[in-house]
């Protein structure tokens, strides 16, 4: 079975370390990291992927911080949702902010879930299972 690739979009090295550790503890090993919004958009929407090959169309899941350099997380989310090839990729926001306006904007753009930092790997796996993105077995 092919591993499911996760794109973690996080600019803070300390948060990146904690989030990667939380993912790995849950058996989610195949993680690519983007450290700013521009890099995330390039990795997700890059021309290197044929639009006919849906299996290579991008990550299986995006874990997205909102406060990013170059392009903020809301704009990354808009870019994902505005592209036919990527609009159905599940996006989970991981943010230090729990401001109602940000949460509402993310919900309007179809996020699967909104976590506040620090990331709890067990809760993440629970959300993925509840959303039908993971079966009952280890990923």
Q: Summed up, what is this model?
A:
This is Chemotaxis protein CheY. The modification 4-aspartylphosphate is found at residue 65. This protein is α/β, with parallel strands linked by helices.
Please write out the topology.
Layout: E1 6-9, H1 13-25, E2 31-34, H2 37-45, E3 61-64, H3 73-81, E4 91-95, H4 100-108, E5 113-116, H5 121-130
Parallel strand pairs: 1-2, 1-3, 3-4, 4-5
Helix pairs in contact: 2-3
Describe this structure in words.
It is a single chain. This protein is of the alpha/beta class and 139 residues long. Helices cover 36% and strands 15% of the residues. It has a single domain, classed as Rossmann fold (3-Layer(aba) Sandwich). The protein has a five-stranded parallel beta sheet, with helices on both faces. Strand 1, helix 1 and strand 2 (31-34) form a beta-alpha-beta unit. Helix 2 runs parallel beside helix 3 (73-81).
Defining key terms:
139 residues; Rossmann fold; five-stranded parallel sheet; 5 strands; phosphoprotein; Sig_transdc_resp-reg_receiver; CheY-like_superfamily; Chemotaxis protein CheY
CATH topology: Rossmann fold
Q: Major sheet: size, sense and barrel closure?
A: 5 strands, parallel
The percentage of residues in β strands lies in 15-25%
The secondary-structure class comes to: alpha/beta
CATH architecture: 3-Layer(aba) Sandwich
The coarse overall form would be globular
Helix content: 25-40%
- The name of the CATH superfamily reads Response regulator
N- and C-termini, Cα separation: 10 Å
Note the run of SSEs as H and E.
Answer: EHEHEHEHEH
In which order are the strands of the major sheet placed? 2-1-3-4-5
Low-confidence stretches: 48-55
> How many domains comprise the coordinates?
1
Rounded to an integer, what's the Rg over CA atoms?
Answer: 14 Å
Q: Could you give the count of β-strands?
A: 5
CATH C-level: Alpha Beta
DSSP helical segment count: 5
Average pLDDT value?
85
